[in-house]
Design goal:
- By secondary structure, the chain is α+β, with helices and mostly antiparallel strands.
- The chain has a domain of 54 residues.
- The chain is 37% helix and 17% strand.
- The protein contains 6 helices and 5 strands.
- The strands form 2 sheets. The protein has a 3-stranded antiparallel beta sheet with strand order 1-4-5, with no helix packed on it. A two-stranded antiparallel ribbon has the order 2-3.
- Strand 4 and strand 5 form a beta hairpin.
- The longest helix is centred in the middle third of the chain and has 26 residues.
- The termini are far apart.
């Protein structure tokens, strides 16, 4: 039975944070931040925190013939992402954005809420945000029954109108 087993080469990786401390002299807080940003971090980060590894992953698994059978398999819940502060804020806002889009989609698919959009006499509040509707909302968007009750009229002046 051991003859049927294959040998695979597995390349693992984990990122180890390195720490270092330096004293910076500066006139004020802003100058200290600027000096710290300009400092070459690699000159002082020589204390690895081996117990705080992140992004543990299988880089790839290679079979005996050199074929890659799997790659980039995460083994923890961490990931690295570039894109700066704007990208970080977008990632942080994603759950709230998803919840808002889900509420909007459910509101559009719910027949009772859809009727309240079409016929404003059903509801005095907006079904999505629950804000009171303005008085002009009903006048700009008449109910379905009011629209169907209006006779179709045509006047000679409207036929000549460009729009």
């Amino acid at each position: 039975m051991t003859d049927s087993l294959k040998t695979y080469s597995v390349l693992f990786a984990e990122d180890v944070p390195h720490y270092g401390c330096v004293d910076i002299e500066a006139a004020n807080d802003a100058a200290a931040i600027a000096a710290a940003k300009a400092f070459n971090v690699r000159d002082v980060t020589d204390d690895p925190a081996w117990s705080s590894t992140v992004c543990v992953r299988i880089v790839h698994i290679e079979d005996e013939q050199g074929n890659i059978v799997a790659s980039d398999v995460p083994l923890d819940d961490f990931h690295l992402r570039n894109g700066g502060d704007a990208d970080r804020r977008l990632c942080e806002a994603a759950p709230k954005l998803l919840a808002a889009l889900t509420r909007r989609a459910r509101a559009r698919l719910t027949p009772a809420l859809t009727r309240s959009f079409v016929d404003s006499s059903n509801c005095r509040r907006c079904p999505i945000c629950s804000r009171p509707r303005s008085a002009t909302w009903r006048t700009r968007w008449p109910s379905r029954s009011a629209r169907s009750a209006q006779p179709a009229t045509s006047s000679p002046s409207s036929k000549n109108a460009p729009f």
